[in-house]
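Lay summary. Proteins are chains of building blocks that fold into shapes, and those shapes determine what they do. In this project we predict the shape from the chain. Here is one chain we studied, written as its sequence of building blocks.
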Amino acid sequence: MDNRQSGGRANIGTSSLILIFIILCLTIFGLLSLSSAGSDWNLARKNAQSIKGYYEADGQAVEFTAMVEEQLWECAQAASSEEAYWHLVEERLGQYYHEETGTIETDLEMLYGQKLHVALELCREEEKGYRILAWNVYQSEDYEIDRSMPVWSGS
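And here is the predicted shape, written in a compact code that computers can read:
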């Protein structure tokens, strides 16, 4: 009798198993790379939006300082005395002027609950009439990190 079997039995050797394992590994690594690239793309897009928001607020702050400089120059030209100058400054800069500290301040909205704070100290000795005290970004809203993790509980 012939001990050979004829039929549909596949003859899978060691080299075939290694080839299947390599293809499986390459597929998994490819999918992981694609997932990582997608996450990097989302992070880069969010970072670009944040930077764009900062520079828009920074541009508004530069316009604000130009307006302040113009108003201070007009006050200096129109005032006949030191007291008249300070009265004109308070009148023209209104809500931005803080008499008790001698500063002009504003907060400009940015993305993600942040604001750009600009504070100028009035200084008649300076050519522009002011000195920059603060030009910084701060978190204006309470920021809470979501520490929950959606893990399957088994039910």
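What the prediction tells us: The chain has two helices and four strands.
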